Amino acid sequence: MPTVTVVPSDRIIILDGLPLIFDFSAPAAMHALQWDGQQGHIEWTDDFNWPLSAADTTAYEEEVAPYVDLWQAEKERLEQESEAAEAARLAEYNSTAARAARLRTERDARLDATDKYLLADYPINPEALEAVKAYRQALRGLPAQSGAPWDGGGELTPWPDMPEV
User: Fold this and answer.
1) Sites in the chain below the pLDDT cut of 70
2) What DSSP string runs through 74-123?
3) Is 33 buried (19+), middle (13-18) or exposed (0-12) by CB count in 10 A?
4) Which of 146, 137, 143 shows the shortest CA–CA distance to 104?
5) Residues 32, 5: Cα–Cα separation, whole Å
6) Between the CA atoms of 99, 100, 102 and 106, what dihedral angle is there, to the nearest 10 degrees?
7) φ and ψ of 30, to 5 deg
8) What is the pLDDT of residue 55?
9) Closest CA to 60 of 80, 83, 33
10) CA-wise closest residue to 30 among 45, 20, 41, 40
11) Which residues does residue 13 pair with via DSSP β-bridges, in sequence order?
């Protein structure tokens, strides 16, 4: 049997050391429930503590198991919510618009890296300057190519080769 701690005022159920905080129903005067897997007790704010024993077969089933069921249902709900959020995040990340934005960002960074070669006082020979201009034009035309935005500027993107300068 699992170890269980329930503290209704804190909205927490801890099952085998894993806490979940959520709204659940409990008797109004219940301060806490403790179960170590074999025995435990319920602490009341207006009564004596009730001992719980595995020898009393109904103690676990009636007093502890409902909170285990609540914890398991909440854990499953949170996992499903997390899976749905991750699926939505991946769908957005892989959307055409997001891939196109990543492609443009990487393309712009590559263009920025060649800006210095176009400065009037940069020491570059005319052949190299023409090669840089052709490279920059190829970068600008990349988003209009068939298949764009590919993988958003990653390994599948047919980047033009930067000329040796």
Assistant:
1) none
2) HHHHHHHHHHHHHHHHHHHHTSHHHHHHHHHHHHHHHHHTTGGGGSTTS-
3) buried
4) 143
5) 7
6) 140
7) -80, 120
8) 83
9) 33
10) 45
11) 6, 20
pTM higher than the cut 0.70: yes
> Which amino acid, one-letter code, is at 141?
G
Question: Where does residue 26 fall: left (phi above 0), alpha (psi -120 to 50 degrees), or beta otherwise?
Answer: beta
Q: Which residues pair with 131 in a beta bridge?
A: none
Q: CB 112: neighbour CB atoms within 10 A?
A: 9
- The 10s digit of each residue's pLDDT in 43-64 is 999 989 999 998 887 899 999 9
- Which tokens sit at 31? 């301060």
Residue given tokens 């159920």 in the structure block: 13
Q: Return the pLDDT at 148.
A: 96
The per-residue DSSP string of 40-60 comes to EEEEESSSPPEEEETTSHHHI
User: At a CB cut-off of 8 Å and minimum separation 6, what does 26 contact?
Assistant: 6, 8, 67
Residue with tokens 């570059």: 124
